[in-house]
Please model this.
Amino acid sequence: MPREIGLNTLAYMHRNADNKVEQKELLKEIKEMGFPIVEVRREYILSGKTEMKEIAALASSSGLKVYYSVPAELFEAGALNDQLSSYFEEASLLSAVQLKLTLGEFRGFTAQLAEELRALLKAYAIHLTIENDQTSEKGSPAVLMAFIAEARKASLDIGLTFDTGNFVYIDTDPFDAAKEMREAVTYIHIKNVAETDEGIVLSGLESGLVDMRQLLSLFPDSVPASIEYPCGIGDEVTKIISADYKKIRSW
Model:
């Protein structure tokens, strides 16, 4: 079975001059392009819970699976983020099947921490996945795999989101990271980057440092992946998204 390829709404970041993305207005187009998955971003929600319910209804009628991306950390100073239950509630309002966070400052599982997280995972039945961020302290392969080892020891079903571009920011070879992490990876963010005089910047699918086709080949086809990079400006966005989607599916 071919890998499922989804679309993170970051792709539309530069469609409008003010960078504001009305996510519910994108769902019909995303489905028409053939995507089975839309990854909704919390920072693009403009009307709170009302909009979340509208997105859920529109996604359901379109036959789209919803993933929820939250720009927050699972742990703060060793404790669970005090907004974590709210993130799960929001994911539920979206009818999302997955919630993505970054790790944050993890200091190990106490029995109480493990039980608190287990209760949320059981109450909402939403898959929790942790993404590598752009710091060595919280997003390196070693740190994330150590976290997964502890989560498994505590019988917590948590996966990893493998962001293909973020490893470059911490001077880690994405191919080495993939080999170290792939057995725990349950989702992939397709993001390429390039080096410029201003530093590392997001790039197009095949114009960056990472050979995306070869990198994706290291993961089983059962692991879904989503486009997560700005796809042009204004009216060209849809054209670039569609072309990149077809290219990735042809690999």
